[in-house]
Structure formats: structure tokens, C-alpha cells
Specification:
Elements lengths: L27 H18 L6 H8 L3 H7 L3 H26 L4 H18 L3 H10 L4 H6 L5 H16 L12 H15 L14 H15 L6
């Protein structure tokens, strides 16, 4: 009897080892998914608490798989910055160009824009205010190289000029104007989640925050009346 021809027999398929699935290196969707998970974690625990290890756990991936796409969390945030924060700054600068002769109207428009941004991106406020509300400065250290200090100094001088021209309240501290507007808008938008059971503030919504900010800014930013 001749031996059977084994060349046509199918070899048994080797199963995948148990454990988490491997990353898909060529998948753009996987990269976007990691970023989306990072943004969701930013919203819950800010920038400092969102490590690559935390992202890997939330994504049900190994740290090595996440590391394939992003070597550091700073690299991941750089993409977030370019996709979301840089355009926001560009739109704010455009508002001041449009209303360069009316800074009060410009700041009110900026406040409205901040409300829109905070509504679209729940992670914005926890990222920007996280370091201010804790002892850490992880985000500030990373974001420092993203800040154009020459532009900030020029804007500071611009506010002083508006005050000298009688277009803004002279009692305003130029260094606190933009942080104040962010607090009136982004911080309050984030606080809504904490106010769900608050009998006084539970009905605060996006529109009421927008109107409140506009009312305060409209009267507080303007020049003092005789």
C-alpha cells in the first residue's frame, strides 16, 4: 500500500494566544479611537490622570499597543491641540479682528464661543482648569511650549491701550480678563454635571450660562460711568 499524498492535506490553523487582541498598526480608525478614549478620560479626570496606561485599560489594549501609535501622552495631546485648541485660538483672534474697535463686544463674542466649545468638548474645562484646582502642574508644563508669549504680551498691551482710550473698565487687570471669561463660561459648563441635584442650579443650561456671561461682561467690561 502506498502512503497517502499529504501535500494536499490542510494543516490545522494555529489559534491566537489568549489575551487582549493585537493592535492594528495600519488602522487609522484605531488611532482615532485611542484619541477619543483619551478625550473621554480628560473629561472625567483631567490631563494629569490620563496616562497611556489608563488609556490602554479603557481601550482594552496592551500598553505596548497604545505605544505603537503614541510614544508619550504628550505626543497624543499634541494631536489634540492641533485638531481642537489651535483652531479655537485662531477663531478667538478672528473675533478681535472683526470687533477691533469694540472690545466689549469682542469679549462677549469670545464668551459665547467658549460656551459653544465647552458644549462640544466636555474635556476642555477639566484640561484647562485641572492644574489650577490641584497641586500638580503636569498640563501647564507640557502646554508651555504651545504658548506664544509674544502674542500674549501684545494682547496684554492691547487691553491697556483699550483702557487708556476709555473703551474698557480701567479697574480691570489685563492679566485676568481672559481667565475670567473662561471661568464664566467653560468652568460653569463643566460644573453643570455637579449641579444636577442642586435645587438652585439644577436648571442651569448652556443658554443661561451664555446670557449670564454676556450680562456680566457687558456691564463689567465697559468703562466706568460718571
Amino acid at each position: 500500500m502506498t502512503d497517502p499524498d499529504t501535500s494536499t492535506l490542510k494543516k490545522p490553523r494555529r489559534g491566537r494566544p489568549p489575551g487582549r487582541p493585537h493592535a492594528q498598526p495600519d488602522s487609522a480608525d484605531q488611532r482615532s479611537r485611542i484619541i477619543d478614549i483619551a478625550l473621554a478620560l480628560y473629561a472625567r479626570q483631567g490631563y494629569a490622570g490620563t496616562t497611556l496606561a489608563a488609556i490602554a485599560r479603557a481601550a482594552d489594549m496592551t500598553p505596548a499597543a497604545v505605544h505603537y501609535y503614541f510614544k508619550t501622552r504628550e505626543q497624543l495631546f499634541d494631536e489634540v491641540h492641533e485638531a481642537h485648541i489651535a483652531p479655537m485660538r485662531g477663531r478667538v483672534e478672528a473675533i478681535f479682528q472683526e470687533y477691533k474697535g469694540d472690545p466689549v463686544a469682542a469679549f462677549i463674542k469670545v464668551a459665547e464661543r467658549f460656551v459653544e466649545v465647552a458644549d462640544e468638548h466636555e474635556w476642555i474645562a477639566p484640561v484647562f482648569f485641572g492644574d489650577l484646582l490641584t497641586e500638580g502642574d503636569t498640563f501647564r508644563k507640557h502646554a508651555r511650549h504651545k504658548i506664544d508669549y509674544k502674542k500674549q504680551e501684545a494682547f496684554h498691551e492691547r487691553i491697556l491701550q483699550w483702557q487708556a482710550e476709555g473703551l474698557l473698565n480701567p479697574d480691570l487687570d489685563p492679566a485676568l480678563v481672559m481667565p475670567s471669561i473662561m471661568s464664566l463660561t467653560m468652568l460653569f459648563m463643566a460644573a453643570r454635571r455637579k449641579w444636577k441635584d442642586d435645587p438652585i442650579r439644577k436648571d442651569v443650561d448652556r443658554d443661561s450660562i451664555r446670557k449670564h456671561a454676556a450680562a456680566l461682561l457687558g456691564h463689567g467690561l465697559g468703562p466706568a460711568k460718571a
